[in-house]
Amino acid sequence: QLQLVESGGGSVQAGGSLRLSCAASGRTYSIYAMAWFRQGAGRDFLAAISWAGGNTWYSDSIKERFTISRDNRRNTVDLQMNGLKPEDTAVYYCAARMVPFSETGWNAWGPRQPDFSSWGQGTQVTVSS
User: Fold this and answer.
1) Among 22, 60, 125, 126, which residue has the least CB neighbours within 10 Å?
2) From CA 93, how far away is CA 6, in angstroms rounded?
3) Residues with Cβ < 8 Å from 27, sequence gap 6 or more?
4) CA distances from 100 to 40, 60, 96, 103 (A)
5) Is the alpha carbon torsion for 116, 118, 73, 22 positive or negative?
6) Strand 56-58 relative to strand 123-128, pairing
7) Tens-place pLDDT, residues 33-43
8) Of 42, 49, 29, the residue nearest 94 (C-alpha)
9) Shortest CA distance to 98 belongs to which of 121, 118, 78, 114?
10) pLDDT one-digit tens code per residue, 46-94
């Protein structure tokens, strides 16, 4: 079993920055990719990173402002968020994929919520205008 714990959420004014971090523990040897989502109408994909090669995928809505990174030794994945806007206010979730996946497929249609089986509890981000 894999446990994911997010941290780094909080309140910030528009234009500010936050760095979210997700720490994985347990079956970390089974991680193939990790990602960040946020709760909108549904759970919206933001960014993903392959665990071995560090390849990244981003939602078009945030790719100019957010950066995902991972530290395999510490088993962490971070989301650097710059130029935050009030519409970025949401609960942010970390997720992990525990089985192999097709990077070609993700290049074509992008990662989606069903692609990930392990989820953290979420961290609140609030951006005020």
Assistant:
1) 60
2) 7
3) 1, 2, 98
4) 27, 24, 11, 9
5) positive
6) unpaired
7) 999 999 988 89
8) 49
9) 118
10) 999 999 999 999 999 999 999 999 999 999 999 999 999 999 999 999 9
Contacts 24+ apart (CB under 8 A), 46-51: 46/79, 46/92, 47/79, 48/106, 48/111, 49/77, 50/103
Question: Band of the pLDDT at 12, cuts 50, 70, 90?
Answer: very high
Angle (CA) 56 60 63, round 5°: 55
Q: Rounded distance, CA 64 to CA 123, Å? A: 22
Q: Which two tokens stand for residue 57?
A: 């995928």
